[in-house]
Design goal:
The complex is a heterodimer of chains A (135) and B (98). Chain A has three helices and seven strands, in the order βαββαβββαβ. Chain A has 135 residues and is an alpha/beta fold. Chain A has one domain (6-134): Hypothetical Protein Ychn, Chain: A. A five-stranded parallel sheet of chain A has the order 6-3-2-1-7. A two-stranded antiparallel ribbon of chain A has the order 4-5. The radius of gyration of chain A is 15 Å and the shape is globular. Chain B has a single domain (3-97), classed as DsrEFH-like (Hypothetical Protein Ychn, Chain: A, 3-Layer(aba) Sandwich), CATH 3.40.1260. Chain B is 24% helix and 22% strand. In chain B, strands 4-3-2-1-5 form a five-stranded parallel sheet. In chain B, strand 3, helix 2 (59-64) and strand 4 (77-79) form a beta-alpha-beta unit. Chain B is globular and about 35 Å long. The interface between A and B is medium-sized, with 26 and 25 residues.
């Protein structure tokens, strides 16, 4: 793992209106399968990807939102959500899915994957990455 | 000569809702569809753009995005696809702010 790179996937688009959100999710899962150090950011309209209760039966598209809850099983445990983006849209963490991962070093204790960060904190997180992917 | 104005992009991603709401005349109606439905949420900053306007929103697009009706700004009419057709028919023109 010593030559694993820090990959950050930045999501800034709402789901369903464009294909970016779904494509990003697929690429994140591929990156995780190659045992890189994967983080994911949701900011701007990207925060809408994580909203609870999505039901696409009326629009004839696949509801891919349940897949976000599988990220923890692929060791994608660092999910950053930008606070300013939520607030501008009138959303809070309660409106988003509760994403968790199991820490095998602590008897598989369930831990929160989502880290609510300010824009300034997010800037520091991005600065510490090796590669940035934008969707 | 009432006009139906369609907005299908998020108000936080483009200025389309701002343009449409600014150009609408008395008697016109705004219909929010696809990512445009995010503009109908009452606690969002964009909700103020809807003040004083006749606004409808497409229910299946709300459901797809996990937006329950209690999250909508006051006075917004939720319609289905048949209601969409009725609005097109009831107005003289349809303008899509793509």
């Amino acid at each position: 793992m010593s030559d694993a790179k820090k990959f950050m996937y930045i999501n800034r688009k709402a789901p369903y209106g464009t294909i970016y959100a779904w494509e990003s999710l697929e690429v994140v899962l591929i990156g995780a399968a190659f045992e890189q150090d994967v983080s994911v950011t949701f900011m701007d309209d990207g925060v809408y990807q994580l909203t609870k209760g999505q039901d696409t039966t009326g629009i004839g598209m696949k509801n891919f939102s349940p897949t976000y809850s599988a990220l923890g099983d692929f060791e994608v445990t660092k999910i950053y959500v930008e606070k300013e983006s939520l607030e501008e849209r009138g959303l809070s963490l309660d409106d988003l899915q509760h994403l968790v991962w199991e820490d095998e070093d602590e008897d598989y204790a369930e831990k929160d994957s989502i880290r609510l960060v300010s824009r300034a904190e997010l800037a520091d997180v991005l600065a510490g990455q090796d590669v940035l992917f934008n969707f | 000569m009432a006009m139906l104005h369609l907005v299908n992009k998020s108000p936080y991603d483009t200025g389309n809702l701002n343009t449409a709401s600014g150009i609408m005349k008395e008697g016109d109606r705004l219909l929010l569809i696809e990512d445009g439905v995010y503009g109908a949420m009452k606690n969002g900053k964009a909700a103020s753009l809807l003040n004083g306007l006749k606004v409808s929103v497409l229910g299946p697009d709300l459901a797809a995005r996990g937006i329950s009706q209690d999250k909508l700004a006051d006075g917004i009419d939720v319609i289905d696809y048949a209601g969409f057709v009725d609005l097109v028919e009831a107005n003289d023109k349809t303008q899509s702010w793509l």
